[in-house]
Amino acid sequence: MLSEAIAAYAHDLSIFCTLALLGAELAVFRPRMDRNAVRLLPQLDLLYLLAVIAVIATGLVRLFFFAKGVAFYAASEIFWIKMALFAVVGLLSLPPTFAFIATRKAAAGQGFDLPPARFKRIRTFIVGELAVFSLIPLAATLMARGLTVRPPGPMSMERWRPDCCGGARDTGAANARKSIRVARRRSGDLGNDLK
Ligand code: HEM
What we know:
Layout lengths: L1 H27 L3 E2 L1 H31 L4 H5 L2 H16 L1 H14 L4 E2 L2 H18 L2 H9 L25 H18 L2 H5 L1
Antiparallel strand pairs: 1-2
Helix pairs in contact: 1-2, 1-6, 2-5, 4-6, 4-7
The protein binds protoporphyrin IX containing FE.
């Protein structure tokens, strides 16, 4: 149990670091930047990349070694929505990364004035990253409670008893099924299913 709690803590901590670094980028990125700001942005961006790698690593550790087992998440549409949102954040982070590196190069150790259109465009990407990133925890909390987008179909996990979770930990699988039942009972779905 302690190792699972530490894995969850590490996942949360790396998420908070990612969010803080993204916020710092937004705060430092200005149309007129002195040489410290020009030098700081690519450094913040590198730390942001390391924090994202930590989020992925801790997420995969939870996925394969803790929580409810791989089969639970593989069958969860919301898990894949979470992964898709994360990929979108990754894509939105590319133009700012290239802009920070190009600005440092063009500034050649001095301060730099960005053309207003370029500043506005890059800032929109950073704000977009933050907006999409803030949706991921919502997907994560829904996913962790076994909530799904569509009612269970013929292939959904709910119908694959008992081997739906393959080699996954029986307790995790049993808990997963229980949490889905509780979630569905709350949403009034279960009655229909048992008919
Ligand atoms: C490759 C990327 C990721 C993987 C594989 C991953 C995987 C996981 C897993 C397996 C859990 C445990 C869920 C459970 O208790 O059933 C979890 C929880 C969580 N993840 Fe991630 N995650 C990833 C990225 C992220 C990101 C980018 C964020 C936030 C921006 C995030 C936010 C959360 C939160 C808030 C929880 C706790 C949910 C709860 O217990 O209510 N994850 N993640």
